[in-house]
Design a protein that fits this description.
Layout (H helix, E strand, L loop, with lengths): L1 H4 L13 H12 L7 H7 L33 E5 L27 E5 L6 H6 L13 H15 L5 E4 H6 L1 H5 L6 E4 L13 H17 L3
Pathway: Glycolipid biosynthesis; lipid IV(A) biosynthesis; lipid IV(A) from (3R)-3-hydroxytetradecanoyl-[acyl-carrier-protein] and UDP-N-acetyl-alpha-D-glucosamine: step 6/6
Protein name: tetraacyldisaccharide 4'-kinase
EC number: 2.7.1.130
């Protein structure tokens, strides 16, 4: 999915259980730019990034779910918070959704609240930073049987809606649902202005946080 969205750009996508080993392999293959050198930092500044895009060298590594990867050094930590459920039951896995205690948020440089358009501005302000039939299954025969039951019950063919991420996980299995229609739900990140916070301001915040982290104490 990421490969499709980032096609034609400078990003390189690595997948593997050992993230450090994957990154090291990319460094060896493409080379890298040390962001802690003053000259490299100037080239990597967000408002001058165009001059760096033609280089094959790796200038930054972005990890999904990287905050819990304690063995790797982090220059910048961005936490995504689901505005619809926040911390859930506030318990750690496996009793709840949290991977670390809430005190770990103190390590974060930036917190982004997603689904903000669905919770209302008044609720965001208080934050410190028809019938649907839903079922979960990956067995195509089980899904087909459930769809046929719904068709018999309501007299019309149900439509299967999956996320783009789930579609890319196993697109072939969805072909086995024919003649039922399968729709893929795609989403995109959109910044909502709140208390003067805009997309431009978010990028400026990232740049300033990186500047402080990379340059270190004077």
């Amino acid at each position: 999915m990421l490969g499709r969205h980032l096609l034609g750009g400078p990003a390189k996508i690595g997948v593997g259980a050992n993230r450090a080993a994957v990154a090291a392999a990319y460094f060896e293959k493409y080379g890298y730019v040390d962001p802690r050198s003053s000259t490299s930092y100037q080239r990597l500044r967000l408002n001058k990034v165009e001059s760096h895009l033609n280089s094959e060298k790796v200038g930054a590594v972005i990890l999904d779910d990287g905050m819990q990867h304690w063995s790797l050094h982090h220059d910048l930590e961005v936490v995504m918070v689901n505005g619809l459920v926040l911390w859930g039951c506030c318990h750690l896995l496996p009793l709840g959704p949290l991977r670390e205690p809430l005190t770990a948020l103190k390590r974060a440089d930036v917190a982004v609240i997603h689904h903000a358009d669905m919770i209302g501005a008044s609720f965001v302000d208080r934050l410190n930073f028809s019938d649907h039939h839903i079922f979960q299954a990956r067995d195509v025969d089980l899904i087909r049987r459930r769809l046929e039951e719904l068709e018999d019950k309501f007299g019309s063919k149900p439509v299967v809606v999956v996320t783009e991420k789930d579609y890319d996980r196993d697109a072939e299995i969805l072909k086995g649902l024919y003649p039922f229609k399968v729709l893929v739900l795609c989403s995109a990140l959109q910044f909502l202005s709140q208390k003067g916070c805009t997309e431009k301001g978010f990028k400026k915040l990232l740049e300033e946080s990186l500047r402080v982290k990379l340059r270190g104490p004077n």
